[in-house]
Amino acid sequence: MNRENKKRKYDKKYFRTHPCMDPFTCKVCGWPVVPAGAGSSHRNHCPNCLYSLHLDREPGDRASDCHGRMEPIGVWVRKNGEWAIIHRCLRCGKIGSNRIAADDNPMKLMALAMRPFGSSAVSREEIRDMTVSMES
What we know:
Shape: elongated
Order of helices and strands: HHEEEEEEHH
Helix content: 25-40%
Strand order of the largest sheet: 3-4-5-6
Number of strands: 6
Number of domains: 1
Organism: Claveliimonas monacensis
Strand content: 15-25%
Structural class: alpha+beta
């Protein structure tokens, strides 16, 4: 084992400061995921189905014992205008967010963003009123 691999194995905060360049296969859809197309050095979810794995307690520490599947449940826009996916662990219920990647499926992202408008919790009239108020 070389020095870099040894440090990676034992240092809990290694992935906070070092890019994760390991390819992986998505546990949900089987998509082969490579970090090259992400536009970021921290690939943390599948670009096809947008699912993630619960690996961290704190970002980059890889200290979670859960390893449950993190379901994409919504999106939000950060102060700088960047989109992030909101994930909820199917095993323990932890909620977290991950920034979107350059190669994420745009149709899945838009479907996730539009999900609240398709639910019965918000009526069509309320949506119409909201969009009218945004125009002025």
